[in-house]
Amino acid sequence: QVQLQESGPGLVKPSETLSLTCTVSGGSISSYYWNWIRQSPGKGLEWIGYIYYTGSTNYNPSLKSRVTISVDTSKNHFSLKLRSVTAADTAVYFCARAYSSSSSGCFDPWGQGTLVTVSS
Amino acid sequence: SYELTQPPSVSVSPGQTASITCSGDKLGEKYASWYQQKSGQSPVLAIYEDSKRPSGIPERFSASNSGNTATLTISGTQAMDEADYYCQAWDSNTVVFGGGTKLTV
Residue B101's closest CA among B54, B48, B46, B52? Predict the structure, then answer.
């Protein structure tokens, strides 16, 4: 079955750019909607955005000005860049697949998550 | 912006029925999904399209969605069901999650 694995630096300095990659195994990325979701320590889930394999994107309005999600179908992975980070961006970042971008869209499966700490 | 409201915590005795609510304006007109997140783990899809169970989710998990409230019900709750539960819906092409409910068994 499809598995997702996040990777990237666990520590980012304030004002710099957070960069993560999600590698998809056991299936092709060339379908479905590929999402980033984060969870601040001890808090709830926050959707960051998605990318379709064609490259079309949709972002959470609250993060839109700082977020870019891209896809590399040749490597079967997609990536997240979050610019100008602050301590408020410290969180566990998950990648997840969605079958749809419409009202019925849900997330399954999820990656194991990776903790990113913003600190100098 | 659209909001989904869940009770912070729910307690249930083993073998009893647990109900977790998720409230939002006209939520019944949208699809609700539910996720289970055990301590230190990633969320797992438990319910989608209001009441459908993915393969591998036990039959004791059920759900409904009407009016302004979606409800996740766990019948014959087991110790292994202790977890955080999140509801999720789409509004204006944006994903919204509830704040989560800690279920204590």
Answer: B46
